[in-house]
Amino acid sequence: MLGTIRDALKVKEIRKKILFTLMLLVIYRLGSQITVPGVNAAAMDKVGSTGLVPLLDTVTGGGLSNYSIFSMGVSPFITAQIVVQLLQMDIVPKFVEWSKQGEVGRRKLNQVTRYLTIVLGFVQSIGITAGFNTLSGLGLVKSPNIRAFVTIGIILTGGTMLLTWIGEQITDKGLGNGVSVIIFAGIIARFPSGIKEIYRDYITNSSSADLAKNIAFLVGLVIIILIVVQFVTYVQQASRRIPIQYTRRAAGSGSESFLPLKVNVAGVIPVIFASSFIVTPQTILMAFQSHSGDQWYQVLTEIFSMQTTTGSLLYTLLIVLFTFFYAFVQVNPEKLAENLQKQGAYIPGIWPGNETIKFMSGVLMKLSTVGAMFLGLVSLLPLLAANLFNLPQSIGLGGTSLLIIVGVALEMDRQLRGLLMKREYVGFIR
After folding, report:
1. For position 159, what pLDDT does the model report?
2. Where are the domains of the chain?
3. Residues 298 and 311 sit within 8 Å (Cβ to Cβ)
4. Distances from the Cα of 42 to the Cα of 15, 67, 125, angstroms
5. How many C-beta atoms lie closer than 10 Å to residue 229's C-beta?
6. pLDDT > 80? residue 338
7. Given this structure, which CATH class describes domain 1-190?
8. What average pLDDT is seen over the chain?
9. CA-CA distance, 55 to 103, in Å (whole number)?
10. CA torsion sign, 116 to 117 to 118 to 123?
11. pTM
């Protein structure tokens, strides 16, 4: 990818896209350091041991630990997108109608997504502020009252909407998918502090007798991370090509093409769903800190904590279940069979209609089985490693982070290669 970037910087148009993207990311990073007025960010250190801050801080680049104006990141926007997408599955007839109206319908759905982002962002920001204020011993909000919480909610919601706008600008005028690039930048921004913490724990604070052992351990850890990254990259690019035959009337020559289906059809969405399912109960439990000694509270904390074996297993199970669910959301066998019939296409050896639906459902089940095992393994390994070896969570290299980093890097590489190839073709034609 570095070679592709080096070649792209030589092209003026592509260089402008890269510099424009970097400029907006600098604005994002600056905003992540601006603390919300009326908040004592130092109080967040008291709740750092709960493990919830690093989990919520994964996609904000440290914005939540600073309680900055970008503390919420783009998570409300992502949640709104998921909700609107699910409502298009014959749940809300109006949304189904808009989804079939092309560009006009897409704009209407985007507008609904923005309104829902505002609502979710406001409710989530007030809830998290109130919860963290309780966990910090009422030290987070300097003057805790309704007006202060509403003001903080408005500021954090405004920060989310500004990040959403920045993401749209990157998508239109920059490089890559804007929201994904912002999350990617937030995750990368946490690496220096994580590496610094590892260096302090294993090198600076270790005795001379343990120094060689710790260095060997860190070298082995780096090798394992590189192997996992290579494995994730390979699976993310892997796909199954289903042959598609076109009739002479539709294609003119009876040509054959392929329908590529990724092995990981659902992408990173199941991991995001599972993370939300785990985080939401933790957020609610923050309001019941006065019952921390009760048995029911301790049991729920054990179940919904990423730092326990039970919580890690529940997290993995949810990922597996959501993988099967969202794979059929992404690729609807009924709609796919209908579109093939409209295009005068068919799968060789498979009758159009119900037979095609059954065939595609079977293929999706097989791919989802492999994809679920892949996502579960990638998400569980970093959690187990962090718990077994007491690695700092601030490094942010969890399952979700790793999948996003690899996915965004591959997408940006494909886009850069496409732009370079397009320029070569244009130059050849001229």
Report:
1. 92
2. 1-190
3. no
4. 40, 9, 18
5. 15
6. yes
7. mainly alpha
8. 78
9. 36
10. positive
11. 0.78
